[in-house]
Amino acid sequence: MGMIKEFKEFAVKGNVVDMAVGIIIGGAFGTIVKSLVADVIMPPIGLLTGGVDFAKLSHVLQPAKEEGGKVIQEAVTINYGNFVNNVISFIIVAFAVFMMIKSLNAAKRKEEEAPAEPTEKDCPYCYGKIAIMASRCPNCTSQLDQGPA
After folding, report:
1. 145 close to 136: Cβ distance less than 8 angstroms
2. What are the structural domains, with CATH classification, of the chain?
3. Terminus-to-terminus CA distance in the chain, angstroms?
4. Please, what is the Cα angle at 81 between 80 and 82, to 5 degrees?
5. Helix intervals (H) in 36-146
6. Which of 31, 40, 51, 123 is surrounded by the most beta carbons within 10 Å?
7. Strand, coil or helix: what is 79?
8. 74, pLDDT greater than 70
9. Helix crossing, 14-35 with 2-11: angle to 10°?
């Protein structure tokens, strides 16, 4: 019974749930990108290259074997057209992830760059550190010009 309880605790932790949501959304995004490449980007490129359908580009290593009009053995091919489509899909996904990470890093940098309000100042007489609101230096006991507001 202890193992089931441990698994439940692990499975419902925030990081695991967030990761699962990310994987699901990533899979859906991959499907969208695949469609974008196959249905939107590659047809115009194929048109520009003389009507070439990249998905069907291949190099035949061994032709199909037929007997009596029936295919006994399928052709052995290297489908480099599919490879080109997948490389373009990868580049699009990688660029989208890069842009997302870049924007997150920029937001983090802006957070880190915001300086905190100073809580200390230097005593003009002994140069010791004193509270910003102090009216007397605790080190040299000098009376300071600025006191609490």
Report:
1. no
2. 2-114 (1.10.1200.120), 116-149 (no CATH)
3. 63
4. 90
5. 42-48, 80-113
6. 123
7. coil
8. yes
9. 50
**Looking at this protein, which amino acid is placed at residue 28?**
A
121, with CB counted inside 10 A (0-12, 13-18, 19+), is middle
Average pLDDT over residues 54-69: 89
Strands (E), the chain: 59-62, 65-67, 70-73, 76-78, 120-122, 129-131
Contact assessment for residue 137 and residue 144, using Cβ atoms and an 8 Å cutoff: yes
Task: Report how far residue 136's alpha carbon sits from residue 131's, in angstroms, rounded to the nearest whole number.
Answer: 10
Are 41 and 88 in contact, with CB atoms under 8 Å apart?
yes
Query: Which of 77, 26, 27, 29 shows the shortest CA–CA distance to 55?
Result: 77
pLDDT at 60 over 90: yes
Contact between residue 55 and residue 35 where contact means Cβ atoms under 8 Å apart = no
Residues 6+ apart with CB under 8 A from 45: 54
- Please tell me the distance from the alpha carbon of residue 7 to that of residue 27, in angstroms, as a whole number: 25
Burial group, residue 30, by CB count within 10 angstroms (0-12, 13-18, 19+): middle
